[in-house]
């Protein structure tokens, strides 16, 4: 028996359909209804999701829209599945690509789905899931990072191989994997789409990740503003003499706000925050500076 050749990462579904052998009817006990082009109709309740699928979050509104379309027109494009043994010992079909269509079909009450049944290894299943989802931008940044990590840890793939397969740079893959080092709260916010990958990278570089995370949410900081927050905090940390000004203990968040106000007003600003209130001191040296400040405050 000839050895099955190793397929390169990133072949995609179109290439896989050409060279991965369909499952022989003798190998399955489930009666599938064959159709043209190798497409089969399989009972929807015989199809199960892949627990290792990289994509874990589905947009509810888009899923509802797809459900309505499936209810009206049916499932127009087959999903890719592989035969597996369920815990009960019966044979079922595990989804390799097309889980969103399956969810929509279940919601729409579709009893049979068009599928392409293929014999695929665990590695091939993961690789297809990563490539297809990344190329379609279906994964959130955290899901993408976890998928890359699984390819590296479980199957020995190198970052350069992954980058080549998905059409991204090696630096992109490395930066995405770094996101797994985020504090738990920031990881949750990233998965929920409440912060971006750019925000997450800034949080990773911050000397106080929690404070920056709070500032991003509270002040709706852009990625550029978050990066500026980090630079200000790092500069203060590198110069201990700046940590105290007239015996004031200044955290990175307070110093960032002070700098923003100073840049806007063109004057030295001191913020002494003591929850729930505090004092704001604006220093001027000349009457001209005072007059200019008065005009700024009146016009704002």
TrEMBL record:
The keyword Chloroplast does not apply. CDD domains: SPO0J_N. One of its GO terms (biological process) is chromosome segregation. One of its GO terms (molecular function) is DNA binding. It comes from the Bacteria. SUPFAM superfamilies: KorB DNA-binding domain-like, ParB/Sulfiredoxin. Signal peptide: none annotated. It holds the Pfam family ParB_C. GO terms for cellular component: chromosome. Keywords: Chromosome partition, DNA-binding. Residues 40-134 form the ParB-like N-terminal domain. InterPro entries: Chromosome_partition/occlusion (IPR050336), HTH_ParB/Spo0J (IPR041468), ParB/RepB/Spo0J (IPR004437), ParB/Sulfiredoxin_sf (IPR036086), ParB_dimer_C (IPR057240), ParB_N (IPR003115). The keyword DNA-binding applies. Belongs to the ParB family. Involved in chromosome partition. Localize to both poles of the predivisional cell following completion of DNA replication. Binds to the DNA origin of replication. This is ParB/RepB/Spo0J family partition protein. It comes from Hellea balneolensis.
